[in-house]
Amino acid sequence: MPKLLLFDIDGTLVDTGGEGGLALLDAVEEVLGMPRECVPHLELAGATDGGITRQLFHQLDIAWSEDRVAEYLRCYLKHLERRMKAPKFPGKLLPRVTEVLDRLRGRDDMHLGLLTGNVRAGAEIKLRHFEVWSYFAEGAFADDAEDRNLLGPFALRRMQNFHGVEYSLDEVFVIGDTPKDIACARAMGARCIAVATGSYDRASLEHADAWAVLDSLEPDALVPLLKS
Ligand SMILES: [Mg+2]
Questions:
Q1: SS3 of 74, please?
Q2: Phi/psi at 93 (nearest 5 deg)?
Q3: Among 25, 39, 84, 152, which residue's Cβ finds the most Cβ atoms within 10 Å?
Q4: Residue 148 Cα, ligand 1 centroid: separation in angstroms?
Q5: 199-220 pLDDT, tens per residue?
Q6: What was the pLDDT predicted at 76?
Q7: Interval 48-62 mean pLDDT
């Protein structure tokens, strides 16, 4: 029975150097017509794009409508792409990511997918930029649900359809950097391997009851965990 690994993106695979958050503010100015200074602090870690947008509209007292949200997110994606293509883009792929993905991709008993709060188009922009999009067969995205805890079954179903197998939940691992990834793994009945490469340190991730915590995506630490 193959194992299913579902990766989060921000703080786990990539660090956009804050440019993702700035692109959200660019879209506030362009689509909502409000200066970015009006936006109170946004809690982005582990949140979904849909959840962030709802939080933004609420804080700025803007009536929520599907069309308006879609327009807002389209504008965010345009700015995200522009910022990531800029010569001084400060983002980076996190340490050892390509190495660990190469190591896992070569094995037919490990299937790689995504479980992210990014909308699919945003996930693709971020991962293509760092040339790691093609490692992942399928996934669940913010387009599927605003609540991260509802995303697991979407990822599971798409990965099962893609590979034509049925995974046993005790062979499903969610890999992410926040307590929200841990909660999301629990909600779907999977295990969470938390990595302390985002905004949470090892102690907070242990406190949030991750199944395992790694300081980074170190292949020699990750691969043995998957066999246990
Ligand atoms: Mg994350």
A1: helix
A2: -75, 140
A3: 152
A4: 11
A5: 999 999 999 999 999 999 999 9
A6: 97
A7: 93
Contact 203, 182 (CB under 8 A): no
In sequence order, what are the residues at sequence separation of 6 or more whose Cβ sits closer than 8 angstroms to the Cβ of residue 168? 1
Surrounding ion ligand 1 within 5 Å at CB are 8, 10-11, 177
From the CB of residue 214, how many other CB atoms can be counted at a distance below 10 Å? Answer: 18
In which residue are the tokens 């629990």 written?
186
36 or 125, which is more confident: 125
Residue 47: what residue type? A
- Token couple for 125: 């922009």
> How many Cα atoms within 13 Å fall on the side-chain side of residue 115?
36
In sequence order, the β-bridge partners of residue 176 are: 194
Q: How far is the CA of 151 from the centre of ligand 1 (A)?
A: 14
User: What is the average pLDDT value for the chain, to the nearest integer?
Assistant: 95
* Statement: residue 228 has pLDDT above 70: no
pTM of the model: 0.96
Quote the pLDDT of residue 57. Answer: 93
Q: Whole-angstrom Cα distance, residue 8 to residue 116?
A: 5
Centre of ligand 1 from the C-alpha of residue 1, in Å: 28
The Å distance, Cα 224 to ligand 1 centre, comes to: 23
